[in-house]
Structure formats: structure tokens, C-alpha cells
Amino acid sequence: MAPDRSRPLALALLLVPLAATAQDVPETVPAPEVVTYTCERGVEIDVVYAGQDYAVVQAEGRLLSLGRAVSASGARYLGATGKVSAYEWWEKGGEAMLNYFDAEVGESVTLYAFCKAG
Hints:
- This protein is mainly beta and 118 residues long.
- The protein has a single domain (6-18, 32-117), classed as Lipocalin (Beta Barrel), CATH 2.40.128.200.
- It contains one helix and eight strands.
- It has one helix at 6-20; strands at 33-38, 44-50, 54-59, 62-69, 75-78, 86-92, 95-102, 107-117.
- An eight-stranded antiparallel barrel has the order 1-2-3-4-5-6-7-8.
- A hairpin with a 2-residue loop joins strand 3 and strand 4.
- The longest helix has 15 residues, at 6-20.
- The chain is globular.
- The mean pLDDT is 81.
């Protein structure tokens, strides 16, 4: 039996407005967009985008609330800033990857690559 993926996504939709409360929110907030990516080895990752500023990524049994970060190309979302461990979601043109930066080791590891929106 396939796992019920609607509960985590429903929770993610509730978390998105909470992430936005830390900053000034415009009067009209865009409707969240849910995108399913299929990555290498057939792994599916669901992402809820709240406009361009926030993404909630469902991966590794977790909901990762990420904020938009500076990138040279594409959209980059980070779980934290500074010298702490954090998840990182990169998306460009319907392709994406999920990385994890380990602050103790000082390097980034790609967890899922070659993810395509479907």
C-alpha cells in the first residue's frame, strides 16, 4: 500500500504562512504551488512553493521549511544561514537537487540529484 502523502503536504501548506510571519507580508499572498520532482533512483520529492520566497520540501521523512537565498542562476532555498548545518534546495528550469551542508565537517553533500518536475 502506498503511503498517504496528503497529510505532510497539508501540514506544509499550514507552515508556509507561519514562515512568512517573520517578515512583512504583502496584502495579497500568492497561492501555494505544489510540485512533485522525481529524482535519481525513482525517489519522489514534493515541494510546496509559497511565491518565490519560501519552499517547504518533503524529503527523508521530514518537512524542510526553507527561505530564498542569493543564487547566480536558478532558485536557491536554505534552511538556515550562517555557520550551521542546513539543507539546501536548488531549482532551475524544472530540474533540482537537495544538498545538506554539515557545519562540523565544513562540506556540502548532495542527497538527491537529477530531480525533474513532473
